[in-house]
# Entry
Amino acid sequence: MQKLYKYLLAVTAALIVALGGYVYYVVTYETGLISVTGFVNDQTQKLEADFITSITNICQNLSQKTKIDLIVVMVQNTKPYDPGVYAARLLKNYDETHPAIDGAIVMLINLDKGMVNMEILPRIQFMFPLSYGEKILNENVIPILNEADKAA
# Structure
């Protein structure tokens, strides 16, 4: 009888710990009480000077006209996150930590997939039309990714 009692006690304790951990996760991360402040990736890549210059010019043009920040994040991959979710979280976290700006745009460049995700805060979509986002991608980002593919 004591073995059964100890077994049931151990199983109950394990279930309580597992359920408690899940509840803690849901309450803190999913509801936003504790937000994820960023993502760390072990693999980094040095940006070429032309790319930095073009992004800097775009940022200066944006900041002269509006209080919009353009954040460019280049990662090897976003595992275990979906690239869209990863970019949306980066944008949400940046927006929460920079309340003085009108808005923000996150351009996530996923090198493994050769994808660019662009997330724009809903409140600034009228100030930053999607055609301008396409222009940034077509003129600045895609040529650099194509050159990197040719060099590899």
User: Anything to note?
Assistant: The beta strands are 68-75, 103-110, 115-120. The helical segments are 2-30, 49-65, 83-97, 130-151.
